[in-house]
Amino acid sequence: PLAQEGHDEL
Amino acid sequence: NIFRLLGDLSHLASIFILLHKIQTSRSCRGISFKTQVLYVVVFCTRYLDLLTFQLHSFYNTIMKIFFIGSSVYILYLMRIRFRPTNDPSIDTFRIEYLLGPCAVLSLIFNYGYNWIEIPWSFSIFLESVAILPQLFMLQRTGEAEAITTHYIAALGAYRALYIPNWIYRYLTETNGVDAIAVVAGIVQTGLYVDFGYIYFTKVLQGQKFELPA
Predict the structure, then answer these.
(1) B47 with A5: CB under 8 angstroms?
(2) CA of A9 vs chain B CAs: smallest distance (Å)
(3) CB contact under 8 A, A7 and B4
(4) A9: which chain B residues are within 8 Å (Cβ-Cβ)?
(5) Helix B146-172 and helix B193-201: axis angle, to 10°?
(6) How far apart are CA B44 and CA B169, in angstroms?
(7) pLDDT in tens, B171-203
(8) N or C terminus of chain A: which is more exposed, having fewer CB within 10 Å?
(9) Quick one: closest CA in A to B166, which residue?
(10) Confidence class of residue A4 from pLDDT cuts 50, 70 and 90?
């Protein structure tokens, strides 16, 4: 999931 | 992607509209101080990753610093600079009822039990309801200056644009979906629907923003 790569949305 | 970019620009625009409103009218009348406090809490808890210096991109970092800085500056304007124009007696939404449930939700739904992920999740839930004191105040007064409604509309547009952004990302990326952000985001956008309807049918037709009696 996105979370594992860090949150890339603001 | 274009939706994400337009969404972020709309968010930036909303902040500039608010600053413009306060500075040109030298008044923060009609603006909920509580909503602005909640936005400071949202930004400070969401962007804790700034402290790790493992930054995602230049764009994200600049935007994060801007959002924290501008939201704190707005509190300064409301509480110190233009304090006499701020009327707490109509800003009566109980934010404890928002903070508590968001804290509980963030402990249940998060991407990891640590000092970045739990506050991040909390900030996502809190942002989704942070506009409520402002909408509540609007409902109590029953009318608003046009510029205040432009501010809320720009925030609503920012949230609405994040939805096609997620659809686009779902179709073009293999990372999967950020379920917490998407569910909270859809709820948040829903809160603007009622306001948006009146904004489109009245303010954009040149009429005053007035709630039906």
Answers:
(1) no
(2) 8
(3) no
(4) 4, 162, 178, 181
(5) 120
(6) 26
(7) 998 888 899 999 999 999 999 999 999 999 999
(8) N
(9) A9
(10) very low
In this complex, do A7 and B67 lie within 8 Å of one another by their Cβ atoms?
no
Average pLDDT, chain B: 95
The answer to whether B111 contacts A6, with C-beta atoms less than 8 Å apart, is no
Contact list in B for residue A2 (CB cut-off 8 A) is 175-178, 181
Cα separation, B89 vs B188, in Å, equals 26
Please state whether beta strands B143-144 and B209-210 pair in parallel, antiparallel, or not at all (unpaired): antiparallel
- The owner of tokens 């037709």 is B205
Q: What is the pLDDT of residues B70-114, one digit of tens each?
A: 999 999 999 999 999 998 999 999 999 999 999 999 999 999 999
The band of A1, judged by pLDDT with boundaries at 50, 70 and 90, is: very low
